[in-house]
């Protein structure tokens, strides 16, 4: 099955997956902090590790990195064009609260938003994968940040019914990638 990675690679768009507390580059397993038993890294939150086209390709596995590599790449100006960044289970609200997730997001994003190396035609889509309620409709908070958001859109809301495929359709649209022929083909684009 094709993934967004296949579309990016077809047109030589650089990419990486940055996962907080992934134990080593290309790891396909979970990692539990033995000090506090917290699920620091879980493979299911690194979704591209579910696809053979990624896991059977050494070059792709080398692009699934930890946050140490993110900061190292940022420092020397070698971050890729497209990134999928996931905090650990404590910082993403799964095992804690929205207060913890918000504090983490602020501490992670504020320095980046003022970093001229990072902020060059940058769009950050901050979102969640699910609501706390498994029986209700999955409505999640998302916010677009970065200098790719035009000043006329800053501080506004949008009533369009976006979904997670909208993230892929936004990437498809940004680089004229075409689409995967799946729900990304009809999902509304978040920003043009």
Output the keywords.
7 strands; 2 domains; 192 residues; alpha/beta; 27% helix
Structure description:
Helices cover 27% and strands 14% of the residues. By secondary structure, the protein is an alpha/beta fold. The chain folds into two domains: 1-119, no CATH class; 121-192, no CATH class. The protein is globular, with a radius of gyration of 17 Å. It starts with a helix and ends in an 18-residue tail after the last helix. The mean pLDDT is 86.
In short, what is this structure?
The chain has about 190 residues and is an alpha/beta fold. It is built from six helices and seven strands; from the N terminus they run αβββααβαβαββα. It folds into two domains: about 1-120, no CATH class; about 120-190, no CATH class.
Number of domains: 2
Strand content: 5-15%
Rg on CA atoms, Å: 17 Å
Low-confidence stretches: none
Q: Please state how the strands of the largest beta sheet are arranged side by side.
A: 4-1-5
How would a crystallographer describe the biggest sheet?
Answer: 3 strands, parallel
Estimate the global geometry from the Cα principal axes: globular
Mean pLDDT: 86
H/E element string? HEEEHHEHEHEEH
Structural class from helices and strands? alpha/beta
Give the N-to-C terminal Cα separation: 27 Å
InterPro entries: Alkaline_phosphatase_core_sf (IPR017850), Phosphoesterase (IPR007312)
Protein name: Related to phosphate-repressible acid phosphatase
GO molecular function: hydrolase activity, acting on ester bonds
Organism: Phialocephala subalpina
């Amino acid at each position: 099955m094709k993934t967004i990675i296949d579309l990016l690679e077809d047109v030589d768009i650089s990419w990486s997956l940055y996962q907080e507390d992934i134990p080593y580059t290309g790891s396909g397993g979970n990692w539990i902090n033995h000090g506090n038993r917290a699920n620091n890294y879980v493979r299911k939150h690194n979704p591209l590790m579910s696809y053979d086209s990624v896991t059977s390709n050494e070059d792709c596995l080398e692009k699934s990195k930890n946050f140490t590599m993110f900061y190292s790449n940022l420092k020397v100006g070698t971050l890729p064009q497209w990134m999928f960044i996931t905090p650990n289970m404590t910082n993403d609200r799964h095992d804690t609260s929205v207060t913890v997730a918000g504090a983490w997001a602020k501490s992670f994003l504020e320095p980046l938003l003022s970093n001229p190396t990072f902020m060059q035609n940058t769009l950050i889509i901050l979102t969640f994968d699910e609501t706390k309620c498994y029986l209700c409709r999955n409505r999640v908070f998302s916010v677009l940040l970065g200098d790719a958001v035009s000043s006329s859109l800053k501080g506004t809301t949008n009533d369009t019914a976006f979904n997670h495929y909208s993230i892929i359709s936004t990437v498809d649209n940004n680089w004229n990638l075409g689409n995967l022929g799946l729900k990304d083909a009809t999902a509304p684009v978040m920003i043009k």
